[in-house]
Amino acid sequence: MKKLNSILFLTMLSLLITACGGENNNGTDKATGGAMASNAAERVYVAPGEHDEFYAFISGGYSGNLTVYGLPSGRMLKEIPVFSQFPTSGYGYSEETKPMLMTSHGFVPWGDSHHPDISQTNGETDGRWVFINENNTPRIARISLETFETEEIIEIPHSAGNHSSSFVTENTEYVVAGTRFSVPYPQKDMPIEDMKGNFKGPLTFIAVGDDGRMKIDFQLDMPGFNYDLSHPGRGDSHGWFFFTTYNTEEAHTMQEVNASQNDKDFIAAVNWKKIQEYVRNGGGEQMDAEYAHNVYDHSTHTATTTMGNKVTRVDPRKVEGAVFFMPTPKSPHGCDVDPSGEYIVGNGKLSTDLTVHSFSKMLKAIENKDFTGEAYDIPILNFDSTLAGTVKEGGLGPLHTEFDGKGNAYTTFFISSEVVKWKLGTWEVLDRQPSYYSVGHLMIPGGNSRNPEGKYLVSMNKITKDRYLPTGPELEHSAQLYDISGEKMELLLDFPTHGEPHYAAGISAEKVKANSRKIYRLDENKHAFAATSEDQTKMVREGNNVHVYMTTVRSHFSPDNLEGIKVGDKVFFHVTNLEQDFDVPHGFAMIGANTSELLIMPGQTKTVIWEPKKEGVWPFYCTDFCSALHQEMQGYVRVSGKNSNLPLKWTLDGE
Ligand code: K7E
Ligand code: CUA
């Protein structure tokens, strides 16, 4: 058996190599020879000054951030810093935003972001927030779609590899975080080889308030499998959450072989409503935890970190009817629920077939106690009893599925490098289109909701190779836009993406753009070190700390001549941008600063610390070309010796 699996794996690997290699040589031919719709250019063309029809929020993978694209043009509109420091704006460098990156491991300036998901009301995307998970140091972030800024990051304690995340339920009651790596729960020093039966797989449910605030509600103490992906139920299955598992073998080494032994792993079906009720009635136990909760305040432009120290742990076996396992073939990756909530698709990545479970059949099987065994006392449902159907020979290496709201599903096949359209209910394959190359996730706007907007499909491809002008060994990943409004998918556009997009979330622009903030009022600036007019500017010495209250407006800083600073001082530049209209930021860069520049948004105050090491007269300047006299937007700081008695002095035009 072990040998057979290795052979299967090697065959797939060689197929992958042939697929990529083969198409690389003639990919261009293929793309122009038929796959490309004849008037594709027209259909993705957004005339100068016109807006796109959809926003696409594409995960930045190991960039740690989230990029915003317009569809159908494929134009990148913005990179939103989330889990990584971002010198472009000073995020994670300025004193105000550093707390956003605090964790129980200290300051972590990088993250690996995977799955964005848009908040929902009644099962439809509502354009309030985007959530995104961080895989490496488990966290979930919430980004406002009013300001397109990261407002909140919560760390997930006891989790490791926060991958089956950050999907939301249909009224944004919860956003979930399932551990990918099973770990000791709580963490402790123990031999790795004793993993089996001793590690756990905590699944965390984070409640989302009306204002968006996240709060860890409970954590399920699940068996030590790997929880890969998840999706919420909707419609009749609202109240349930589904998680794919792999490594149900609980292998601790050489997992590429040892975690592929079982013919079937599981989809865990979790009735979160039952557990919520149990917890509300005092169920579960308080467990020690250590996690950072970082919140950004829009009136002070400042983030604060609060450390949490308790979490409610629930043993799901103590809640009658709360958790079941549905056997699903071959190390399933994607776990997708169709718009009606009836079908749960498990994509066994070592299989050619897709397994579709039926929610109503699942309920029946539970009622009839139609079990074939137990895993750590959790009932395993009879495979044949929950099976709705199988999509046969879809391709090789299925990963993820999305839906168009018209009864069709679309699945990506990594190894055979294609997107395959099939019909829900009859399970027949309707169409297939090659992807260039090796597609991972795909996205249809509203695809994780009751009401997908099935006009376009974006495939996110892992290998770029010959699609663009060569740029050395490191290539950006590549996305492809298909028109799916007709019977056959039509490839319209290639566009490069940043980092490694895993999932993406899309929404029609109409739902978002009207709420986008345009005015940032100075009188709402509650920053402790703000100077909201030029006559409030000053310098204050507290021992070796010098606080500079500075303003910036087109086209000067106030003050622009600063004296009395000494080697060994720690200078805090608190810079307030007096502009109030959006899209008029000013920058602030100081020679020798060890962090980054600041890009100060209208109405805001931002702080950077500078520790001068050398005597002299040192310049600073605005980094953003803000006006015709931007180049004149500069000033000087005089730095004197350690023992100088020069008093602080700040002037603008001699005053
Ligand atoms: Cu890349 Cu969703 Cu993290 Cu599949 S995962 S591809
Ligand atoms: Cu302000 Cu350039």
From TrEMBL:
Pfam families in the record: nos_propeller (PF18764)
Domain of life: Bacteria
A GO molecular function held by the record: nitrous-oxide reductase activity
PROSITE patterns: COX2, PROKAR_LIPOPROTEIN
EC number, UniProt record: 1.7.2.4
Signal peptide segment: 1-19
Keyword annotations from UniProtKB, A to Z: Copper, Metal-binding, Oxidoreductase, Signal
Localization annotation: Cell envelope
Protein known as: Sec-dependent nitrous-oxide reductase
Organism: Salinimicrobium oceani
Gene that encodes it: nosZ
